[in-house]
Design the sequence.
């Protein structure tokens, strides 16, 4: 039910009545005034509260359900980090407050820059990008700025493996590059021979996720880095899967020149439902002059913003202010709670949980897309056999999982594996929770074998059953009309 | 198994091409491709009179599962596009080789057609994919 379908004509929440009826509009030209009042919901305050509380209870969230959405790192968002970021001194700080009056805030950002620099093995960090996609954009814009500054004008191609996130080719295109795809081998590694043939004087860079979207660690990364560098290109690290290697291996040591991190994944800030994200970029020495502004520096007189005047090569600001401040503060608190000793444990337990799940699902009859490889923090199950033999697709399994109280894993991604589930349990789940999921998956597989139609018509316990997504996509209907 | 008409030519990326009597070449996507994509909900076609070269992206086909680029197997000028697909993209599912065609090209080099796969080679390529 929409909120517009609640209520009665003329009803309103008491708190809003006084101001809305007393606004003086005489200075607004007649032509600009509405002839009719806006079609807002006419509901009481209690109706509003009940409406949205009911809706929230129909939702799946990390606070209510296991949420093994591959590639999204839906880990627990610690309340301590939230509490720290909500301190009145942070929450009430105006973004235009002069640096000398926001030394505490700047100190936190500076420390966070240092922590991220250290854990990635890079030379410098900018927290400015406000989401992962913006971080990617900043990263490739820096690669472009670097080649242009060297008068190296022929480089117009970015190489992207087919297993990459869809945002990688989109980013390269947005930055004015041509995308050149290279294949991935049957074991999930990049086809190094194809890479060798693809690089040349037109290569601006390579974008790579490691561990890759196939859920496996790119074993030939040092060789890949050498091939790209020898051709004069730079290496971009997509930090989407940083959770798998946090504190264990550093992208800087693998030979990457630039990378972004998703604080909202790896550093446990809330996401899903549209954000807000935060996508800091880290670079090695040669790209440091091009970092997006503002950065925070530490001087003898205290902390201060680094502006574009001080960093003339900068690709510029990414937003009006300094990025998503509340998210950076949460990430900073999270990093401090983990400490140097805690960071590698994130990677260890994320990969342990993934490998435990993978092994137990194989025992239950499921087939892995890369069975000969150890999983990283996530892994791919392919349901093509179940689809062929019983007619039950990955989508059917996903819908049935909802009945068991589990958010479905990522489905049909990466595109190169048919009928797949990309499963990422994260390090914050207990063994009992993982066992419950395994049991549900085992039961659904038995159901699919015995009574496939039952699985094909799921879910049964949700507020709505199977939606007609084809009709929804063909006949988009996004506006409420009376 | 999906249909792979003998008289057509194919790309491993699942486009088909047919040389028409008037010398133009019609392009669409295969039965196997539409089956993999599932219900098609949107099709983007090249502009009329656009000049395209073999291997270029010449459109997009979008289903509820995925969006895929369509590549043109032949170079030339786009002389017709299937405007029916704008309102009834489901034709790609129901009749991929006839009513569900995408665009027609006046080819600048018909030898490009000879470099395409025949029905047997395409079937083999699909089976390799289906690991």
Sequence:
């Amino acid at each position: 039910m929409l909120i517009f379908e609640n209520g009665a004509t003329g009803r309103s929440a008491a708190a809003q009545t006084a101001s809305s009826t007393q606004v003086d509009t005489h200075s607004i030209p007649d032509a600009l005034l509405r002839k009719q009042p806006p079609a807002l919901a006419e509901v009481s305050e209690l109706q509003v509260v009940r409406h949205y509380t009911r809706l929230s209870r129909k939702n799946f969230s990390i606070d209510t359900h296991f949420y093994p959405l591959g590639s999204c790192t839906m880990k627990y968002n610690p309340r301590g980090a939230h509490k720290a970021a909500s301190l009145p001194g942070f929450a009430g700080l105006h973004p235009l407050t002069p640096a000398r009056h926001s030394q505490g805030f700047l100190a936190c950002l500076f420390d966070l820059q240092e922590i991220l620099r250290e854990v990635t093995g890079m030379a410098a960090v900018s927290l400015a990008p406000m989401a992962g996609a913006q971080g990617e954009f900043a990263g490739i814009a820096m690669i472009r700025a670097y080649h242009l500054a060297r008068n190296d004008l022929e480089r117009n191609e970015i190489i992207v493996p087919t297993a990459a996130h869809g945002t990688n080719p989109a980013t390269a295109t947005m930055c004015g590059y041509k995308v050149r795809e290279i294949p991935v081998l049957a074991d999930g590694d990049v086809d190094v021979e194809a890479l060798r043939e693809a690089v040349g004087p037109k290569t601006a860079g390579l974008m790579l996720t490691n561990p890759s979207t196939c859920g496996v660690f790119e074993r030939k990364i040092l060789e890949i880095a050498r091939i790209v560098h020898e051709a004069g290109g730079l290496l971009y690290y997509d930090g989407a899967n940083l959770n798998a290697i946090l504190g264990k291996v550093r992208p800087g040591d693998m030979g990457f020149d630039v990378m972004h991190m998703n604080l909202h994944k790896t550093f446990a800030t809330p996401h899903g439902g549209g954000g807000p994200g935060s996508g800091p970029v880290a670079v090695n020495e040669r790209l440091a002059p091009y970092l997006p502004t503002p950065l925070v520096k530490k001087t003898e007189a205290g902390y201060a913003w680094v502006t574009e005047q001080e960093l003339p090569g900068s690709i510029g600001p990414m937003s009006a202010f300094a990025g998503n401040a509340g998210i950076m503060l949460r990430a900073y608190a999270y990093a401090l709670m983990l400490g140097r000793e805690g960071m590698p444990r994130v990677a260890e337990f994320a990969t342990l949980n993934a490998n435990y799940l993978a092994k137990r699902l194989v025992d239950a009859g499921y087939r892995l897309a890369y069975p000969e490889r150890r999983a990283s923090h996530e892994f791919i199950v392919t349901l093509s056999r179940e689809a062929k033999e019983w007619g039950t697709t990955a989508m059917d399994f996903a819908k049935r999982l909802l009945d068991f109280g589990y958010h479905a894993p990522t489905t049909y991604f990466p595109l190169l594996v048919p009928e797949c589930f990309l499963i990422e349990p994260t390090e914050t789940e207990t063994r009992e929770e993982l066992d419950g999921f395994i049991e549900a998956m085992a039961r659904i597989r038995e159901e699919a074998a015995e009574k496939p139609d039952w699985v094909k018509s799921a879910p049964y316990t949700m507020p709505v059953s199977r939606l007609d997504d084809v009709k929804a996509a063909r006949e988009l209907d996004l506006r409420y009309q009376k | 198994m999906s249909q792979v008409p003998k008289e057509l030519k194919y790309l491993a990326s699942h486009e088909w091409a047919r040389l028409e009597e008037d010398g133009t070449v019609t392009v669409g996507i295969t039965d196997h491709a539409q089956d993999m994509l599932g219900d098609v909900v949107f099709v983007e076609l090249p502009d009329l009179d656009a000049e395209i070269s073999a291997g270029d992206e010449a459109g997009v086909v979008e289903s509820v599962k995925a969006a895929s680029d369509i590549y043109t197997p032949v170079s030339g000028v786009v002389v017709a596009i299937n405007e029916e697909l704008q309102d009834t993209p489901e034709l790609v599912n129901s009749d991929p080789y006839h009513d569900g065609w995408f665009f027609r090209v006046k080819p600048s080099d018909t030898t490009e057609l000879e470099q395409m796969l025949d029905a047997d080679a395409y079937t083999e390529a699909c089976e390799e994919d289906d690991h």
